[in-house]
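Task card 7
Instruction: Convert sequence to structure tokens.
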Amino acid sequence: MPPESTPPALSLTPAGDGDFEALLMLRLAAMRESLEKVGHFDPQRARERLSRGFQPKFTRNILMDSQLVGFVVVVPLDEHEWLLDHLYIHPGAQKLGIGSWVMSQVLAEADRHHKAVRVTALRHSDANRFYQRHGFVLQAEGEWDLYYLRPAHSDDPANP
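Output:
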């Protein structure tokens, strides 16, 4: 009988100012295929977009067995909503359930704070199915992006 494999140890840790370059490289690796499909892969544009909105206080590194494999950024929009601004998993760590684990952490936190969560996904990205599976509902369509909302839920089972 083969030995059972141990599931990877996953954790979220606060990001710091010095994490920018590593997170940019993760974003480029994660987005490359989707952006190349639509002819919009531009590393300089990706750098500018990430640096414009980089706020370590809202950014968490995703670690698998203590190794950086992704990052998530959740920004408060107002008293009722949060924006899931970034969620990237390195391609070598995708399809292991890491994204679903991170999403469950983010949504549980949103539920504890009674917040709805917004997210934008590239129109032709596999991320669209991922977000829909996690309760996000399409709200609007742009030329390149789709805009989703996951309504606020209560973390109290007696008061959904």
